[in-house]
Design a protein that fits this description.
About 55% of the residues lie in helices and about 0% in strands. By secondary structure, the chain is mainly α.
Length: about 80
């Protein structure tokens, strides 16, 4: 049985996945998304308490993909989340 996780973890995993796929740095994503680099690092390290929809939308924008495409990932499968 796979370990369940939170929405914050799903955002972190998806962000790292897209950073790797697009071969860009956290710094570059932060510039593109108009976010602080520390905000993205906190998300990746799962230390973010303010990972809200606006921030996730900005991250998707930074990857040049629509929000729905960002969350269209197995990481966001509701069965994987903690109750």
């Amino acid at each position: 049985m796979k370990k369940k996780y939170s929405m914050t973890r799903a955002v972190a995993l998806r962000t790292v996945e897209l950073l790797t796929e697009q071969k860009i740095t956290v710094y570059e994503l932060a510039k593109r998304a108009d976010l602080n680099e520390s905000t993205i690092r906190n998300i990746i390290n799962e230390r973010c308490n303010s990972c809200n929809m606006r921030v996730v939308e900005r991250i998707a924008f930074g990857f040049n993909i629509p929000f729905w495409k960002f969350i269209n990932s197995p990481y966001f499968d509701h069965e994987k989340f903690n109750d």
